[in-house]
Every structure is written in C-alpha cells, then in structure tokens.
C-alpha cells in the first residue's frame, strides 16, 4: 500500500484531461477604432495615439477636490467593498476545490458502554456484531476464554473502544477534479476583473457626477445673471413709465419675462440638491453627512492631452472583456467536467485501527485491524442525464463565446462613440462660446438703446431670451466635453493595470 499510493497519486496527476483546452481568444486585427484614422478633436485638445493611461486618470482634470472625493469613494463605497469581498469568496472556493486532488484522511474514535440482555438470541446478535471487532474465541453468551476482565455474567456491562484511521482517494484519471479546479480559478479571475470594472465604474460615476454638479451651478449662475439683467431692464422701464414715455403694458410684459426667468431657478436648485445627494452616496456616506467638496466648471481643467491606447490592446485593458474571457475559460472547463463524469471512476480506500475493551489495551498485540478496498464505477444507464448535462455544458460554452465577442464589439463601439463625441464637442463648445459672446454684445447694445427709448420692447425681449439660451448652452457644452473625456477614459479601461499588483485586491 505504501508503494502503490504514491504511484497512483502520480498517475492521476499526470492523467489525461478530457474536454477542450482553453485557448485565449486573439486580439482583433483593428488598425484604429473608427473607419477613418482618428484625428485630434481640436480647440486645444489632442489625442496621444498609443500613449498609456495613468491609473489615477481623474487627476488630469487638475482638481484637488475631485481627487479627494474620488479617493474617498474608493475607500468607503460599500458596492466596491462588496465586489472586493466577492474576490475572496471565489478565491477560497478555488482553494477548497484543490483539496479534492489529495487523499482524504479522517480519524474515527468510538467509545461506548454496553449492557447485554439475558436473551440468548439477542446475545447471539451481539456476538455477531462483537466478532467484527474482536476475532477471538471469547463468547459473549457462555463467558468462556475471557481476553479481558469482563465478567462471565451475561448481564455485566462492558466497554468497547475503537480508534480508526480512514483514508480515501479517487485518482483523477480523466481530469474531472483538475477541470473543477480550473473552472474555480477562472471564476476567481472573473470576480477580480468584475471588481476592476466596478472600481472603474465608480470613479467614472464620481467624475461625471462632479461635472454635472459644476454644470448645474453654471446654469444657476447664468440664470441669476439673466434675472439681474431682467430686473435692471424692469427698473429702466418703470422709470420711463413714470415719465410717461412708455405704456403700462411694456412694464407688465417685462415683469412677466422676469417671472419666467425666475421660474427656471427652482428646478435647477432641485437638481443641484439631488446631485449633492448622489455624490454623498457615491462617497459611501449617509445623506445627512454631505460631502464638503463643491464643484464649478472654472475649477475643472479639461485634459488637453488625452491618451488613446492601441486598438489591439483594448481586450487586455477593458476589465469587462477580461471578465468575459474568464467566464469563457470557466465554461470551457465545465465541458471537461461533464465529459469526465461519463467515464469510469476509481476510488481507493483504507481503514487502519485498533479496538479493545479498555483504552490501555488499544495498541496491544491482536487488537489491530485494517481494510484495503478499491471501487470502480461506470455509469451504464441514467436516462441520458449525464449526456444531456454535457450537451448543456457545450451550449453554455457557445453562449460564453458569443457573450465574449459581443463584449468586444461593445467595447470598440464605446471607444469610437467617445472619440466622435469629443470631436463634436470641440465644435459645439467653440460655437456656443461665439454665440454667447455675440448675444451678450447684442443685449448690451439693446439695453443701452432701451435707456434712451430708441428700441422697442419686443427687441429687448428677443435679445434677453437669446442671451439666456446661449449662456445655458455654453455651460452645457463645456460640461458635456468634460464628461465625454471621462467617458473615453472609461471606454479605454481606466489604467487599472498600472497599479501595483498588491493594490488591486
């Protein structure tokens, strides 16, 4: 037995592995993300083709409050903590699965006190049971040939002491257990990449939410400015009305325009409050414990140089693609598990022990026993259960493969959308700034003419509405450009691979 067990162990570890072996899918042969070669977005911002993304990409906005909020969110957000804990669950499940590759050893200890009945038939039953452990001429009924100080009185109590070592081992001939370990390790990898995806989503959500808060504050500021202009125009009209230069209807019309502008303020203030609640929750705080940071567009600097990775590296950088690849790996191993379950399996077992009437006699000569056994099992008929399980595993593998390819396609779409958005955003910001500047100069001229009564009230209303709309559009265009830059960083993977390995857990 000592010579055979290591040989069987080595043979099982070197046995064949049924089922397909996992092969990492090749990277797509894509020269660039869009049909045309990507150009710079313009207006001072440019794409750095082939440059790597920093791990803390949000620092490119050069905002200390934003950096502090992102780091606080990474440290305290419970959703990210749950994703990190999921890694531990998958890792220890994989480690537990490895234990089945080794022999299983258990120690059995049985101690009992027994009292026989005077009934001879019951004693015969006890004698048969007793002889399994004590192959001696001792007879429980007659009380002859006593090997221990048990009384010949058939009603006298006696003790039975058993110490047994049980060893069992199932040689992994077809790789059933090794495929199980392979699948568990792939699931652990999937959990790790899902955590990276959660981390990337969290940082992106914080950055975009901060930009949205800055946008709302900018719109509130623009609204308050136009309200001040409307009030100033109303004062001029009231003064002219007091001189009899204009009719009361002109004053009332300006009051209506002022009320309409003031009506736009409460919804913006509501949006700001809700946005603050969102940022507080992302930081892992309760709603009453609001964050200290406040964001304005003037405090967020647009990253002028945006790193754009090589397309062939995207499958290595996107955590969702890596998670889909790990899922494909696990599905491949599951096919091997299903196929190995249909083949013959062998189980080896050994029982070593000693039994006696007294503890002191457990290791005395004649008290030991052993059992060696080998079992072979081959499924003959199971109602097509195992075959259908294999077919199900093959279908799941096809599903995982399709899901992987779909994830890659979506990832390339995300990057292409972000690149095109930034190219469009540059034009939109430039146009919005020109429009705001022109409408402001036009409004200044109209207001000057209004003081001297040289312009109609309709022209005043028109100039005010155009400037109000242009100011809001300029704020929104700048915020959209900032947010789309963050979307590009997220689409490219966020630079998680540049962190130290021990910091990824």
Order of helices and strands: HEHHEHEHHHEHHEEHH
CATH architecture of the largest domain: Up-down Bundle
What is the strand tally?
6
Report the CATH superfamily of the largest domain: Outer membrane efflux proteins (OEP)
Query: Can you list the strand order of the major beta sheet?
Result: 2-3-5-6
Outline type: elongated
- By oligomeric state, this entry counts as single chain
CATH topology tier name of the largest domain? Outer membrane efflux proteins (OEP)
Number of helices: 11
Topology:
Blueprint: H1 4-13, E1 46-49, H2 64-76, H3 78-98, E2 104-115, H4 120-131, E3 157-169, H5 176-242, H6 248-263, H7 265-282, E4 305-308, H8 314-317, H9 319-340, E5 345-356, E6 368-377, H10 385-451, H11 457-491
Parallel strand pairs: 1-4
Antiparallel strand pairs: 2-3, 3-5, 5-6
Helix pairs in contact: 2-5, 3-5, 5-6, 5-7, 5-9, 5-11, 9-10, 10-11
């Amino acid at each position: 037995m000592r010579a055979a067990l290591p040989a069987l162990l080595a043979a099982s570890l070197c046995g064949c592995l049924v089922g397909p072996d996992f092969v990492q899918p090749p990277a797509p042969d894509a020269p660039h993300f869009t049909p045309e070669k990507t150009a710079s977005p313009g207006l001072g911002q440019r794409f750095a083709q082939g440059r790597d993304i920093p791990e803390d990409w949000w620092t490119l906005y050069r905002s200390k409050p934003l950096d502090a909020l992102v780091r606080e969110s990474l440290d305290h957000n419970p959703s990210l903590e749950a994703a990190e804990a999921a890694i531990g669950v998958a890792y220890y499940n994989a480690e537990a699965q490895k234990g089945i590759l080794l022999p299983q050893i258990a120690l059995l200890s049985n101690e009992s006190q027994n009292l026989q009945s005077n009934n001879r038939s019951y004693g015969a039953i006890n004698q048969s049971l007793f002889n399994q452990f004590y192959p001696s001429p001792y007879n429980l009924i007659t009380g002859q040939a006593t090997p221990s100080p048990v009384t010949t009185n058939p009603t006298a109590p006696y003790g039975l002491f058993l110490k047994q070592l049980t060893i069992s081992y199932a040689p992994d001939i077809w790789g059933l257990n090794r495929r199980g370990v392979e699948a568990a390790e792939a699931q652990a990898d999937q959990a790790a990449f899902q955590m990276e995806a959660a981390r990337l989503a969290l940082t992106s959500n914080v950055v975009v939410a901060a930009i949205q808060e800055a946008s709302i504050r900018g719109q509130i500021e623009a609204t308050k400015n136009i309200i001040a202009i409307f009030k100033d125009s109303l004062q001029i009209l009231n003064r002219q009305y007091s001189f009899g230069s204009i009719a009361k209807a002109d004053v009332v019309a300006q009051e209506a325009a002022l009320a309409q502008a003031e009506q736009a303020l409460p919804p913006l203030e509501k949006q700001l409050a809700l946005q603050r609640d969102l940022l507080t929750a992302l930081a892992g705080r309760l709603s009453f414990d609001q964050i200290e940071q406040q964001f304005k567009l003037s405090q967020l600097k647009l990253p002028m140089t945006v790193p754009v990775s090589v397309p062939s590296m995207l499958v290595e950088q996107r955590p969702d693609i890596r998670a889909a690849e790990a899922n494909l790996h696990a599905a491949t191993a599951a096919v091997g598990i299903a196929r190995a379950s249909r083949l013959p399996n062998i189980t080896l077992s050994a029982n070593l022990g000693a039994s006696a009437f007294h503890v002191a006699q457990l290791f005395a000569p004649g008290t030991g026993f052993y059992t060696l056994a080998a079992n072979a099992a081959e499924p003959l008929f199971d109602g097509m259960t195992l075959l259908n399980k294999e077919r199900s595993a093959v279908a799941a593998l096809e599903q995982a493969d399709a899901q992987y390819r779909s994830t890659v396609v979506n990832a390339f779409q995300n990057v292409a959308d972000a690149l095109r958005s930034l190219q469009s955003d540059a034009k939109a910001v430039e146009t919005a700034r020109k429009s705001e500047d022109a409408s402001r100069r036009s409004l200044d001229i109209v207001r000057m003419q209004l003081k001297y009564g040289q312009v109609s009230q309709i022209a005043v209303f028109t100039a005010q509405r155009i400037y109000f709309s242009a100011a809001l559009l300029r704020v929104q265009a700048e915020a959209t450009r900032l947010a789309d830059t963050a979307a590009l960083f997220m689409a490219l993977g966020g630079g998680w691979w540049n962190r130290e390995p021990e910091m990824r857990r």
